[in-house]
Protein: Lecithin-cholesterol acyltransferase-like 1
Organism: Canna indica
Amino acid sequence: MANTHQEKLQEMKANPILPLLLLLFVFPMALQLPAVCLAAGGSSAQLHPLVLIPGSGGNQLEARLTKDYKPSSLVCAFAGSKGKSGWFRIWFDPTVLVPALTRCFAERMMLYYHADLDDYRNAPGVETRVSNFGSAEALLYLNPYLKHITDYMATLVNTMEQLGYVDGHNLFGAPYDFRYGLATEGHPSKVGTQYIEDLKQLIESASAANGGKPVILLSHSLGGLFTLQLLARSSSSWRQKYVKHFVTLSAPWAGTVQEMLTFASGYTLGIPIVDPLLVRGEQRSSESNLWLLPAPKVFGEKPLVTTVNRSYSAWDMPEFLADIGFGEGVYPYKTRILPLTEDLPEVGVPVTCVIGGGVETAEKLFYGEGGFDVQPEVVYGDGDGTVNMASLLALEAAWAESASPVVRVIRVDGVDHTSILKDKSALTEIVGEICQINAISTGSLAS
Ligand SMILES: *[C@@H]1O[C@H](CO)[C@@H](O)[C@H](O)[C@H]1NC(C)=O
């Protein structure tokens, strides 16, 4: 267990260009289609429409500053391209890598919990929007001018196009403001609730545009959690009419230990030149990040974080949040998030979870004398590099007692949380699944 997080950081610091170079060389690869798809003999007209639901940070996001914006510095007062409309790209913008501008990014991305509303809102003077809802366009690259380093779903979409999927006809994308999450029922969650409403309408119109065929939902990461909630909050007759199958990629059903590191010390998404403490406040403020803290139901009593003073299991999350200096997160966590993570509701549609595995994933964090401002020693366990195996398998475990088990897990070893969208062996599995779902319903098996 010699390979600690510290050493990894050291390695990356020694060669700050290396991770970027690695990204540069991940080109989309042509994929040989498995025979099952060709055997089905379906033309694209027969395909079930496909709706893509991205993960956190998995789509472009725009912002606009109004006169209420209070920049923390002169730099932030002037940073950001203000075109005629005032809208500019906030995610992903490479200037976030310049420390002075990282600060501007963080203050603009910050969410605020308003106790009087019992809900989250943007920072004062910052408007955000997601453009091109309904199209897969905004999911392809996080920045269309930096295609090679910000490829997100481009390879996956390209692969689906080879099957006969066409954006806007039978292929759709549902980008969203991923900083927001959902709350347990009875608590308002304006942005997240609007999103699942919009997604629901997109599903209905996708079906209508394709002869009333029910849709296949294909999510990545956090998108799986939103989609599960959408299904749980819809009637069973709606689900029968509109949803053929739900395929999830890398869904963190019960959160991740990595998220505790993010809350305690900030996390730079593996970009070593960003100071994690510069983005920590913004990351703590994100409602969806709170949703991704390890769920007590799955992680149990195991100590996940150990400091010089004590250890914290997933059950100790309120104390953990207070001790890291994020006391304001305790109330929304306890009232809005914790009840949401207590249950993974059955949704009565078949689900396939495609997951990575066998990749070192943060499982225990050890903080020394320096406290939470210093990156911890990390002990790794099984997972996809971001999500722990127990979380990736949590839906299957939760539904194990179900009378009609409808969840299937496909594990692809050596594939990490995001490369599942690009890796050849993962794509082969995903294509196989999408083809099989389509083939079954064309009647080729029934005849
Ligand atoms: C440990 O406890 C001391 C005394 O209460 C406190 O000052 C310190 O911040 C704590 N350290 C950590 C890492 O929790």
Observations:
- Residues 155 and 422 are 6 Å apart (CA to CA).
- The chain is about 35% helix and 15% strand.
- The chain has a mean pLDDT of 88.
- Residues 190-208 form the longest helix (19 residues).
